[in-house]
Specification:
Non-ribosomal Peptide Synthetase Peptidyl Carrier Protein, Chain A, mainly alpha
Length: 82
């Protein structure tokens, strides 16, 4: 399963706002958390966005850089959970 294009766009738009980065500068492998671009509050907000858009519950233990450090990881996690 792949994510719907509108959800991908919403994730990139969210990341751009949270990190104050141009959407074009957010590549699939751009480190978000490990580079300090996305802080812990942003990470929780991202998880909330995914929960809302996918209709799922993300356990607190899953809200980690392992799952959310890059767009690729976010996509992979959301695809598995959605």
């Amino acid at each position: 399963m792949t994510l719907p294009a509108d959800l991908e766009a919403a994730i990139v738009a969210f990341l751009a706002r949270e990190t104050r980065t141009a959407p074009a500068d957010i590549a699939a492998d751009t480190p978000l958390v490990s580079s300090g671009l996305l802080d812990s509050v942003g990470l929780v907000r991202l998880a909330a966005l995914l929960e809302q858009r996918l209709g799922i519950r993300i356990p607190d233990a899953d809200v980690t850089p392992e799952h959310f450090d890059t767009l690729d990881r976010i996509r992979s996690y959301a695809t598995r959970r959605g």
